[in-house]
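For the sake of clarity, the format in which proteins appear in this thesis is described at this point. Each number in the token line that follows is a code from a learned vocabulary of backbone shapes. One such record is shown here in full, so that the layout can be seen directly:
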Amino acid sequence: MKRSLVWTAGMATALACSVAMSAPALAAAPTTFGSQTQTAASSPVAQRSSDPRVQTDIDAVLAALPAGWEDGVAAARAQLPADQWALRDRAINPGDYQCGPTVLDTWVDQQLEGVDPLALAVLSRVGALDMPTLDALFFETDATPQYFGADGSQTIPLTHEMRVLKGFWDVKTDDIQLVAMHDDFFSHPDKVTRITKLLYGVTDEQAAELAQLITALVYNAGFDGNPLLTANAFAFTAEGDPDPVVAAVPDKIVMGDGILEAMAYAGIGGTAPKAILAHEFGHHVQFEDDLFDSPLSGPEATRRTELMADAFGTFSLVHKRGEAINAKRLLDAERSFYTVGDCSFTSPGHHGTPNQRLKASTWGADVAASQQKQGQIMPSLTLAAKFEKMLPEFVAPDAP
């Protein structure tokens, strides 16, 4: 597998559980998703909002959608490789593992307070909640000034780390771009319009009208500027994609405002952003080294690549030729960071339990410590081979 969206911290899963939103909806898009037809597609919704303004907005959005819009959204979701999202056999027995609710479950609940639930469900259904992600993926580039965090506070540390990571690993990294997605997406009509046109395959005029209607629904639903819109970070490569438009998208790491805000809420806003970036960069090492192929499938396959990225990320952060962060300080922060590791054992996006992620990261720190005594950086393929031998130990049952 070469093309992938790899979500960090399980935040997409948290939002999915809250609004019945499918994580594959955030997959990479084809050239156009929808039909070019101008016939309206009115799709009935069984429930009615208690807010007349919101119900009017819902009706207007559904009436303005072109025929075939559902096929377009489905096509967007189908872009994610099946082995990452299709529900398959149970990966592990939840009773064998320590895993439970986290502090960020509370954070997610707080972000949903006062939001009209029916409007949120409709926005999810028609793909509107995917728009900030798709726009960052297809249109944001580092050719324009990027800032990270809603207030820009993470711009300097993350851009510095990106430079360090590019010089650290032994794979091609000069073409990887670091771009941001921001909570205020729906306050930019030009961005909403361009991704509306791409998502539904409509004309410029239709896109502008539909974008305005969707934006009105977002605002009247109380979801404008909500950090759940961008509560993710992901790595992307389009290498090998047959669609020329998708293939033209450069390798990227996208960092959302929301995930940074969530880490700050959890009290780990200092180190967690670097850990997230190092993890996502680890996925690009996997892309370049063809490390996604394995005998595993479904949740177990995803867990393997995510734990490997955890190990790679910590290895680069601790190594003195990387970020040279004190191992104990980093692992203490990651212990908190990994409390957001998901417990969705049968989910295709399962990243591993918090304990499993910490075990993989601790191992990565130990390998870095042993290597840096000689001033060496272990080749990535050698590191991967050593990780594979340790994987059964990382995922062994740990329930008392």
In short: The longest helix spans residues 298-318. The CA atoms of residues 364 and 376 lie 14 Å apart. The mean pLDDT is 81.
